[in-house]
Amino acid sequence: MKALSPVxxxxxxxxxxxxxxxxxxxxxxxxxxxxxxxDSVALLDIxxxxxxxxxxxxxxxxxHELRGAESDEDxxxxxxxxxxxxxxxxxxxxxxxxxxxxxxxxxEDAGRRARYAFFDDVAAAWGARTVALAHHADDQAETLxxxxxxxxxxxxLSAMRxxxxxxxxxxxxxxxxxxxIEAYLDERGLAFRQDRTNTDVAFLxxxxxxxxxxxxxxxxxxxxxxxxxxxxxxxxxxxLLGRLVEEASARHVNVTEQGGAICAVDALRREPRxxxxxxxxxxIALAKGDLARIGFxxxxxxxxxxxxxNPSGRLHxxxxxxxxxxxxxxxxxxxxxxxxxxxxxxxxGPGCWPLSGGGELVVEIATDPPPWGELPxxxxxxxxxxxxxxxxxxxxxPGDRMTPLGMAGEKKVKDIFIDAKVPRELRQSVPLxxxxxxxxxxxxxxxxxxxxxxxxxxxxxxxxxxxxxxK
Length: 471
Description:
Layout: H1 6-21, E1 29-33, H2 38-49, E2 56-63, H3 69-84, E3 89-93, H4 96-103, H5 107-126, E4 130-132, H6 137-149, H7 154-157, E5 169-170, H8 178-188, H9 204-219, H10 223-252, E6 253-255, E7 261-264, H11 265-269, H12 273-288, H13 296-307, E8 312-317, E9 321-326, E10 329-334, E11 345-347, E12 351-354, E13 360-366, E14 379-383, E15 391-394, E16 401-402, E17 411-412, H14 413-419, E18 432-435, E19 438-442, E20 446-447, E21 460-466
Parallel strand pairs: 1-2, 1-4, 2-3, 4-5
Antiparallel strand pairs: 6-7, 7-10, 8-9, 9-10, 11-15, 12-13, 13-21, 14-21, 15-18, 16-17, 18-19, 19-20
């Protein structure tokens, strides 16, 4: 059988790869990222050659403004490529170096963020469902190695997926290696731009490309293709594990009204460590929005916090992400500020009294109280003859004590908070109701013995807390 030409072989492999991964639907509008380099030129030519897909292509180029006139020439070349295929062309300049300095990022990371933001904007403006990127199998191998030396786990070592989660970014050339792409370009007679920064070994990816991969290839010829295959196998495993994590997340991770996450400590402890670690990452992503700058040490610290015999603790993660253990719960939130202490409030009589920080205390004249065991924690009844107005409502102070209902002796309020598992950060915001020097009620926790309702009580009031978190 006659061997296929480099062009026919590449088209056959890419056509099958696109179908296998469901990258496009016939007639899709697709943004094609074209830098002007060999890979993106090949991608654009291949997508135009696959006529059966009937794709509406839009060529997009981001000028990183790192190489002066050379960067401008890359932009002009990309525009000429679009013109050659009679396709729309969109470009934008971005001062990536200034962005890296401003946001304290590496040039590589800043460039990547700038590109994705630009492609998202172009896709939105043109109503495109998909953005096609020109990463190939050698890029995949380099990405795996780069993440491996940085200490990535399974998700990172899966490297780049053919279709990114959400389906808006696709990589049709992952099935081809650099040699196949160069042979394709040579047979088609297509010109492309050479970016001199691709040889600068100051960048980690370039050191891996020009130093580590050739060394590995000497140890085992074809190492890059085997590494790319390893990434593919790991990606399949990650997809399976991802389903297990989603099932466990439905059981253990609850989203809070503030956009964070909360988990039960005992339930987490019963899961295998590998699943626990993935659940922590899931919870961090819910609170923070992504997993940028979250490393092994952060996840390991969370696991130690969950397994600790100490019932409380706090971890500060990057980008103002806070993880707090409070007894049998662990919460993940971002940009959390400590809840301010409750401001003093004097209650002159029945009425609706707003509390600082939200919520209100409602006091009403009442008769015939229900049995104490049937009262909600947010409600209490008092004998007015034993607890005359005015009352004082304030937050907890060290040294506060009360005589709990049904007891003869006093107990520290701090100990009552501990028994009731009130998180430390909430304690100073829990309303304490005083009549004179007598502590009548720790709202939501314990009622006091002073001013309890008895058979001889003649004047009574009921107090209720509304719209305020107490635990």
